[in-house]
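Objective 1b: paired records.
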Amino acid sequence: MTAKRASTLLARQWQHGGWLSTLLRPLSALTAWAVARKRSRYRQGRLPGYRAPVPVVVIGNVYVGGTGKTPMVIATVEGLRARGYTPGVVSRGYGVKVGPQPRVGTGALEADRYGDEPALIARATGAPVSVHPKRALAAQALLQAHPEVDVIVSDDGLQHLALARDIEIVVQDERGVGNGRLLPAGPLREPASRLQEVDAVVTNVGVAKAASGAPGGRPRQVSMWLEPGAARQIEGGATRPLASFAGQPRIAAAAGIGNPERFFATLRAAGVAPQATLALPDHHDYAESPFRALAADAILVTSKDAIKCAALGDPRLWEVPVQAGFSDPQLFDWLAQALRAGHPSGAGPAGGKLL
């Protein structure tokens, strides 16, 4: 069996169940034990957790892989800034060897030093970003370098309990909780019941949907979709409307994200139907160009890929940025109010949870 067929089989089993998933259930029991033990040790104080002197918002998922966290992080930073906060971001820096000391930066950060997602977040928001596998260290370094930061947004880290948090937001997609089983029999890092303990569940639905009913309750239920903007040529910086690619022959699309098909579906929904699509592994490093064999006049890529493609010098590459839209127009008003209610002074651990 080829690696691709094995991956497809596993994805199908994770979503719908089957013989392989059933066979792996004993290993999932071990995962459940490890997760429960870890949470218990933090709750009992047997493992130390860092409480930052400012509120912390964690944006993560329980489904392994990409669900759309990065656009949600960007929208959260911008939403909080519009409501008077000065946000900073902490991230693991996936795929990067950070070393013992966190790396803190702003603006145009190098993806090979900070990670592709932190570099994208820094470029898109202008907020200071700190990366380290131990997010507590990243948070401390962020606040030391940028004392003006009065709220921390954690890119991923729902399971990183060493960093205490005030608000937890889970981002999921149309796959929901899949077959409902923990790794490796299913796709879940934590039991599906974890979704009832967070403050909000944001579901990446792909296409715009109208709000349905009042968004109150806990967890707050919100639909999110990604709206593409004008395309930008990576090499030359020229821009053109995405719709201008519609109907043109020799258009291709590529994505090295957790769910490449979501990007391709976004293009099709915008009226652009690529003649060829290239699904690359998440966090693809682009050390060599994967586009040489593509017979295309233009290749549309995600912003996450564009961060790492500039060195390729390929004028056919066009970045398609996306902006998150939400069914709940009061989402960030609610978030700002929740943070202020937990921290009346705007800073300090008046509330929060260690789990």
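Objective 1b, second protein:
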Amino acid sequence: MSTAEFLDRFGLRYAAGARAVVGVLMAVAAPFAAPPAGMAVCALVAVVLAGWSLAYLHLMRRAPRTWVWVCDVAFMCGLCLAQSVLVDPSLLVRFLGWVSPVSSLAVVALQWHVRPLPGAVATVLVCVAFVVGASASPGVTVGQALVAGGVWTAVEAALSRLLWRLVRRGGRIADEHMAERFAAERESELRRARRAEQRAHWATVHDTAASTLMMVGVGGVRGDEPWLPAQIRRDVVALRGEPGAAARAREVVEGAVADARITVDLRLDGDVELPGPVAGAIGGAVAESLENAHRHALVASVVVDLRVVDGRVRVIVRDSGRGFDPAAVPDDRFGLARSVRERMASAGGRAVVESAPGRGTCVCLEWPHA
């Protein structure tokens, strides 16, 4: 539900409720206003007023109905015209009559239920009826009747119409601001998703084709190595974005170690079935960590430790090489920063890199991330 719709519904219920409450209260007070027609006649009118007020509340609180408010305006006009027999003239002179509050509030509430034109017509009819009825009482002049209810009722109706317009305008403005905010949030999410997809693609290129081509370019391979065709096929599959299949944690780590160009001390403890995206993320992260160790650590071997406890996977790749300062790595560099960390984060895990110059490097992969 929009704000404007909520305020419309609230306005209908609030106006109808106020109209009903005042109608019932004035019905209770009516027989005690020393009516010239007598208490019995006024009590009968009061009972009709109370019953109609409650019926009005029931009928108008959900949706305005034309026949209901037309009957209400006619009833209010009748009360106003009958003031000379329903209200003590001395009370009218002192502006203490009971008809004025119920008739004026009926007109005020109507401004929240109907369009401006019918609301204005109803206001004029009730005001004229009030002036005619009040001035018919002994000792009450037309000027006093105008002050007692005619002019004041018109002013109240105008203020009520203005307030309702401001309330509805505020609701529309709030909806427009909310729509703009939601649109901005959606656009921000789309941009974030596009950036994440782009970074994932760059990381894939870095881990696959770029790494293989760099090895060829720097003379790291001769071209007849037995592992090279398989490596190229894996690169092509990764660049195509083909979804990986579910695999056991041991198989994933063993596959990454088997392709490493550095000696690995593999330690395995436990096993669990990994979803395809998770298996791909862990396998790629382990492979990138081993490749980084081969290129930069300047050591003969590394330790890869897989531990599975209660379905939680933890893989540690540790070397005793020259190390580096993680904080000094430029933001535009891939490798551990994006290829490993973002790869694990996209699969619901995390990667923690600990290193310092001269103290080696430790890459800890965890899934799922607590």
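The first strand starts at residue 247 and ends at 248. The chain is about 65% helix and 10% strand.
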